[in-house]
Amino acid sequence: MFQFQKPTGRVISQILVVIALVVLVIPLVLILKESLAGEGLNNYALVLSTTPFLQFFGNSLIVSVSTVVLVMYLGLSASYCFAVLQPRGSTVGAVVILTGLALPAIALVVPLYYVIQAVGLLDTYWSVIIPLTVISIPFGVLVGTNYIRGLPAELYEAGRLDGANSWQFFWQILVPVCRPILSVIAIFTFLAAWNEYLLPLLFIQSTDLQVLTQVPTYFQSERLVDTPKIFAANILISLPIVVVFIVLQKTFRAGVSAGAVK
Fold first, then answer.
1. Which residues neighbour 32 within 8 Å (Cβ) at sequence distance 6 or greater?
2. Where do the structural domains in the chain lie, given as residue ranges?
3. What is the pLDDT of residues 172-181, one digit of tens each?
4. How far apart are alpha carbons 195 and 213 in whole angstroms?
5. Tally of CB atoms within 10 A around 229
6. CA 243 to CA 238: how far, in whole Å?
7. When comparing pLDDT for 137 and 40, which is higher?
C-alpha cells in the first residue's frame, strides 16, 4: 500500500498506523499487567485449579466447532444456490436471509427461548449451537455469495464439460476454491461462538454443560470482585482465538482481499 503513495503521504500513513497500533497494544498491556497483580502467575494457576476450566473448555469447543461446521456448510450451500443455481425465488430468499444482519441478536432471545423450550432442547448443547448458527448464517451468505460471484465463469463451464452435476461441482470444485472465504467465515463464526455469554447463561442450567465465558463469574460476588483473576481468566479464554487466527491467517487474508470486502 505504501509504495503507491507519495513520500509525504507515506510518512503520514505510517504515523497513523503506529498510532493505531499503540492504541490497540496499550489496553492489552494493561490487561496483562492487571492479571499479574497480587499473586502474579499464581492467578493463572488458581483460575485453572479452582474452577472447572478444562471441562468448560471442552464444552466451548463442542459448541464453537459445531457452530462453525454448520455455518460453513449451510452458508456456502446458500451462497452457491444464490450465486450459481439461482432457482425461482432465490432473490427473495437471499433478501430474507440477509435481513438477519439488521436484527440485533438480543431482540431474538425471548422468541428463541420459547422455541428451544417447545422443541425440548433446553439445557443441551443444541440450545446454544442452533441459535448461534442462525445468527451467523447471514454473514456467511453475504461474504460467500460475493466471493462465488467473483469467480471466473470458465470455472463453471469447465465443470459442466467434465460432466459434473451440481452436487459434484459443489464438493469437488467449489469447496476447494472457496477455502479462503471459508476461513473468513470460520474465524468470525468461531470468534462469535467462543465469546458468547448470554445464550449459554439463559439456555443452559446444568453446570456440566456451561462454557468458558462463565469462568470469570467464579471470582465475583456481591461483596468481592477478584479483578486480577478475572483478567487472568479472560486472557486464558482468548488464547484459543489467537491460535485459530494464527493457523488460518494466510487463507484469511486471501479471503478478505478476494471477496469479503467486495
1. 231, 235
2. 52-260
3. 888 888 888 8
4. 6
5. 25
6. 9
7. 137
